[in-house]
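Lab notebook, bench 4. The sequencing result for the construct came back, and we need a structural model before the next group meeting so we can plan mutations. Quick request posted to the team channel:

Model the 3D structure of this chain.
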Amino acid sequence: MSYILFGHNFKKVYDENMSVAFISDLHLEPIENKKTFAFFDFLESAQEKYTALYILGDFFEYWVGDDDDELVNLEIKRQLKTATKNNLKIFFLHGNRDFLIGQKFEEDTGVQILKDKTLIQKNDHRILIAHGDAFCTDDIEYQNLKKELRSKAWQKKFLQKPLKERIKYAQDLRAESIEKSSNKPENIMDSNPDAISNAIIAHKADILVHGHTHRPEVSQAVNGSTKVVLGSWEDEGWVFEYDQTHFELKSFLI
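Done. Here's the predicted structure in token form:
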């Protein structure tokens, strides 16, 4: 499945015009499964296809600190390091599951962490990138929890706990989140249209790209801009590709 916004249908134009890519919500776990291997395959091909890769949060199902030495996490970091050494620029935004990724992760992988709602210039387009949870303003309970977990005081205290205790907390929080989400109306967990419009206007963006809601789409937004929502990697993976001739949201089987 793909969404084409302008220009010609997608073709292999990488030799003539290298493109950039955006992904999010892979929710990789510290186990080897089909998503892990799908990402490794994607990353290998990305080094030939793209000049830059933007990972817009929830790359991991949970991340409890850069000292997590699970073997699969170490292999993911090794693969990222190989890619950045091969001149693929990789940028990362924190998601609600992996906001504790920090400086050591950057050093280990060569990945550069960007702030949420970062504006990047590509050719004639101003592209605003975000994880997407900041736009879910109707979910007051989630926003209050996010404010607590993102505070420096909470993070300092949490990171001082033993690794096993942190992992147990993350797993319990994930289970609680799943249970609460099942009882919330769908519209509360989706992005708020006014929050989207306000962000686009404030940054004078031509394109907004975000994840988090797991509802992939391409749609027109305020002032003739375009909103792109990335999908989560489940049975399909999702990538938004951009180059100077066209941009496209694509899915592929995992």
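The two ends are 13 Å apart (CA to CA).
Will bring this to the meeting.
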